[in-house]
Amino acid sequence: MAMEIRTTGRAVPARKVTNDELAKTMETSDEWIRSHTGIGARHIADDSVAASDLAIEASRRALESLAAEDGITAEEAAASLDLIIVATASPDYLGFPSTACLVQAALGATKAAAMDVAAGCSGFIYGMDAAAGMLATVGTRKRALVIGTEVLTRITDWEDRGTSVLFGDGAGAAILEKTAAPSEGKGKRGIIRSLLGADGTGAEHLIMHRGGGRFPFKKGETVEKPIHIEMNGRAVYNFAVKIVVETIERLMAEEGISADALTRIVPHQANARIVQAAAKRLGVPEEKFYLNIEEYANTSAASIPIALDELARSGSLKRGDLILTVGFGAGLTYGGNLIVW
Length: 341
Ligand code: ACO
Known about the structure:
alpha/beta
């Protein structure tokens, strides 16, 4: 029994804002942003667009591809889903309803269970592993839709140049299917190994303090700033480099392979410098890591599925390729999936 990625999709807002455009509204420069992060632009959703809207668009693309492959309609593909998991740090609503339920209704995925995963930028990796586990436990469950979707620019403090230049909006989706292929041994397919972890002692380093049960908004209170991301960039950077290296090393060791066996490493796109530092420590060529941060900036839980969809649709991934996804984020969380495409 294998958990295979059948199809993928992505949705990115049309409005692209370059570093030079940002530099007109705050004290920053294209040179600083590029040299410190590798970011060249970010896509920003219109005010009327929320995380569920981008998720629905990305999911429809994945469902259309599945429908074309299976000779069914996109509606039938949606109705065949047993599970929808949405990973997001910028859900439509605080607490509930889950963004996954909004997606389920819009797609007409009437028999699908639906839930959100809150694991920051590692959310898609957590979501894939959760979906694989949930498909495995019940025989009749066959298909899951796993989505990473974010409107981070909506929860960004635009007066803080240290964080606001880093984030962008977008969504990526993958349809995971339980098939008869083997998950180990010769000819193995799908998600063959996952590693998930967390270090909650770093929770304060990446946090949205206000609006939750700990520090709720109170009646009559004048709010100085909308709800927003607060980040200790240096602490997150140090954690990220260390944990990306450790996660890749552990997954390769558990699988008994070297980096040569990997077609691609698809890292969370937070900062090109994090990837470069990790590549150097691992002794792996930088080119093995897929990077699209220049175009999209950090789209948190959406960054890995957007990258997977770009790779898949550009024909860069072939059946049988071994890829490793790796991410880290608020929590602090981290993880990776080893996948035979
Ligand atoms: N433009 C110009 N100057 C700036 C900007 C900017 N946008 N931002 C900060 N600076 C200045 C600072 O004020 C500081 O100036 P000073 O030396 O005069 O005080 C200087 O640049 C250096 O600032 P640092 O914060 O020390 O810069 P650093 O090299 O650490 O880079 C960065 C900051 C890019 C945020 C880095 O720490 C980083 O990438 N951290 C990891 C972030 C990350 O991965 N986040 C993941 C989020 S995941 C999630 O779950 C949402």
